[in-house]
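Q: Can someone sanity-check these two? First one:
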Amino acid sequence: VVIAILAVWVAGRQNEITEKLTTQQNTITQQQTIDTYFQGISELVLDDEGQMEDWPLERAIAEARTAALLASVDAGGKAKVIRFLSSANLLTPLRRDGMLGRPILDGAGGYVVDLVKGVRVINLGSMLAGQNLSHTDLRRVVFTGANLARVNLEGCNLAEADFTGAILQKANLRGADLTGVRFFWGEDAQAATPRHRTLVANFQTGVHTGAVVEGIDVTGATGISPEQRQYLCAWGGEETRRTLPGGCRAIAPQAR
């Protein structure tokens, strides 16, 4: 009996060790894959002098590589990729010159952002729709215009992230840090409205610049400003209003 018990214990320990080694190897392999992607994207969109130079075919290849990678890595890996792309201005709409379509330098070490007619190097599109990004660091990430329907952002640090024009319908933001998060453009939350399929956004007034926030779950979310509350209560619908910490007192719901 003792020998049988010992054999079971040894087998259990071997399984635990095997699982740990497999997990470690998977983590190493994933990081190597991500590092290779970083290098490949950098070589694809930068010229010999380190300036951004992306042609339409290069942008298409970059998007295809990004979509394939995001579909194959875990939540932490997805967050690393997105932070890299955002920090490198590859998700930001940039103004282009009228000849070769190159991004225009702003004279201060960066590129000119054009929210109306700018072109992104990589358009996230629907790559993250329904994906799990829970409990990751997504501070200051630019999600503008992306389809994030049903995305899981539970417990994420979203401080200063930009969701203007994004589709967040039925997204999970339970326990997320929303400090400084931008859901719309402009200073007047009462004037801001969600994006529209056909009408042009007005970045002066905020009309049609906002995220689609219907049905999102913000239970336990923190860092909610009065402006965010006004917008979420007005355009979030019943589910958003019901789960918003502090409620929606005296803020009437709006219909799109």
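And here is the second, same format, sequence then tokens:
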Amino acid sequence: MTTDSEYSGRVQYSYKNKDCTLRISDLRERDSAVYEFIFTTNQEGGRYTGSPGVTLSVTAGLQVISYSNRLECRSSCRLPNNPSYVWYKNGQEIQAQTSYYLNDVYYLDSYSCALQGYKDFPSPSVCVQGESCYRVTYTDRSICAFKGSSVDISCLYNSYNYPDKSTVWFSRERNHGGQNPPQPEDLSTDSQYTGRVHVETERGFSTLRISDLRERDSAEYHFKFRTP
């Protein structure tokens, strides 16, 4: 697998006291397969395969299920005992640590969840009722770009109070100093991005373009809109 282009840069082996481990990073759904371990000896015919192997199923991850009076964060994979959860309402983290969200829910709000310690892998946002609610959906969740090049980061968003009071792209790594709690800084006014950021926003769609990319631009970027 270390020579398979499909797994390039994503596979590591470790061997210790006859304990062999395969690590696959940046999992993709097409990685779902049966994996087997083979070892050879210096004896004639000394080639042995561990069969049956290990079946790996890679899913899209968590999903939020909406009931009449509560929300559930559900996974198709087996989770550790008593995991802690993180809940988000309209993209903002809220206080809740169990797989169920029992507080009052508003039909225009969107909700998503993640496992504590894995906030970079939240579930897709869902509406409480139907498909009409406030939410932001990113065209790509992970982008790789070359230093010195340009990149477009786009999203679709649902807003029911057009025109919006404000829209902004930001990175949580870049905050206004001196504010409590710290407030994300609009990239259009951030000195680190001066002359390198261009934003185009139409109703329901926005694109952030960053040009002359630098290594320190590596970050997670978010879009936020405010209603009147």
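A (reply): Looked at the second one. The two ends are 54 Å apart (CA to CA). The chain has three domains: 5-56, 62-133, 137-226.
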